[in-house]
Amino acid sequence: MEMKQENSFLKNTIWLTIGTILNKGLQFLAVLFFSRWLSTEEYGRFDLLYTYISLLIPLITLSTQEAVFRFSVNEGNEDIKCKNVSSAFLFDMVNYFVYLCIAFFIVGRINVILYLAFSFYLIAELWSVYLRGFLRAIKRLDIYAFALVLQTMFMLCSVTAFVYKLHMGLIGILLGYAVGTFIGDFILVIWGKWIKYFDVREISKKQIEKLISYSAPLVPNEVSWWVMTASDRQIINIFCGDAANGIFAITHKIPALCSVIFNMFAISWQQEIVTKVENNEDADVVGIFNKMLITLLSICWCLLAGSFVFYFYFFDIKYFEAILYSPILIASAAAMAISQFYGGIQAAYKRTKSTGVTTIVGAVLNIVVHLALIDEIGLYAAAVSTLVANIVIIILRMISIRDVFKIKMKKEASFNLLIFLYFFITAYFNRNMYFNWINFFVAILIAVFINYSLIKTMLFTLLQK
């Protein structure tokens, strides 16, 4: 039984990781073109609007997709799953139409076209987030992963049509992302057989209240994560302008590869630890943590050593300054992954308030440090404040779960941390191309050697599948 659950955890992580790597790899390549088709000001505005969407989604949905997952993933009664899925859908849609009315009177009358394009993209993303929670609830992470790739491919085609062919600029990229996301949503509905779980008759006020009672405390957590990742853009926009925002948006692209991959691990880990807790089974938390940390640091040092390739050969020269801030944000992405690991344990024990409080503290600290340093060190302030905030969240969450688990770093993980620090430092010695390429290949060789057993297991699992 234990071996079967471990294989399930590994399989989920592998499928999510592969799907995410392909998805974000395509998106990353797309940015190389989008950043050339748009000015730094236009790209900076789009990035700012995207951050507004990431803020509005938890406010509109109250993170009900997390409640659908938590109350359905181990539920054997199909009727209860149906109640959760149907009730959450109605709640989300009603709140979205409330947003449409409020937003129209605030900004819609000023720029109707931008309002419509933004709202179109918002509903596509909102629907996508809801469906991901649904797929996690029915344990179909394979569909989740594959649909991500198809969604991105359609998005690339639609953005190319609207921006490159029709020269629609900011409106075009919003519409392109919306169309691609909607097509991906449709695929999720069909393959996930969502209609089987949706029944208007099962919608219940009592069930909505139950879902919200669990998910509402997560909203401050989601908003605080937004503050940490998006308030930097707001502050940069105020103090430095749209062009600086465009540069910082590009800076985030390489660390975002880390974050998204680690998010997939966090999703798989949360599903695993929730199942263990619900079934009153022991979980090898310390072992999984150290394995995760070793793999996490290996991916990060490869990106630290290889990021020069993108800045020297792919990104437009006008974004080259971004190379200075990327190493700090990669380190921050690693810290965020560790905090999400602890967050998964908090979710398993339904400590959503603790999750929210720790993130709020980090968000406030992020703003304070950023504002304190931006006049002195410019865009470095945004990167440093994010790293400091994530480290503080780790410490707070570590303290909050010590009554359940005491997690320690093993020698192997400590050794990997030293290797990571070496590549972090050498990332700033990027002018000598011979050194860059040698350092990059060394980073890959070390990562493969250290993770050889994991790589072999992943390949075996895929071939067996």
Automatic annotation (TrEMBL):
Keyword Transmembrane: yes
GO CC term (a single one): plasma membrane
Subcellular location, principal: membrane
Keyword annotations of the record: Cell membrane, Membrane, Transmembrane, Transmembrane helix
Highest taxon listed in the record's lineage: Bacteria
Protein's membrane topology: Multi-pass membrane protein
Pfam families assigned: Polysacc_synt
Subcellular location: Cell membrane
Transmembrane residue ranges: 12-37, 49-73, 85-106, 112-131, 143-164, 170-191, 293-313, 319-342, 354-373, 379-401, 413-429, 435-455
Record's protein name: Polysaccharide biosynthesis protein C-terminal domain-containing protein
